[in-house]
What does this fold into?
Amino acid sequence: MKTLSLLRHATAVRDPRFVDFDRPLEPSGERDALRLGMRLRDTQAGFDRVICSPAVRTSRTASLLLQAMGLQQPTVELERALYTSSVDRLLRIIAGVDDAVERLLIVGHNPELSELAIFLSADAEELSPCTLVSLHWESTGWLGLELTRPAAVSILRPPY
It folds into this structure.
């Protein structure tokens, strides 16, 4: 079984002193990322691989989430292509994941993550900040997942 989890970064500061790439999280965004991590910890969820946009707000969201999960987690891989992406580019990144990986987390931005989630499943929706959508397939590989409907879809959104 393959599980693809898509996490939109938590709420970020909107301040003209920061260029978009360098925007930090709002205190409420930091709390949301920690709360989501605790919720996932309580369900004993985990990830085999984490791919994250290198923007400050996404990498901080991933860091806080994994810290709060408290489980042995993989190293966060920063992927520049996630900063300004497209559904096609995201699908290529996913297709390139080793089939030994069962649970993949991608931490990124809208509109691309929402577009991908909705493209993959009619049960998905627009992702608000710090919303996690997990799609589950009865599959042994990542290549071509978009050609079949997921067996299940779950959505976690603040407040958790």
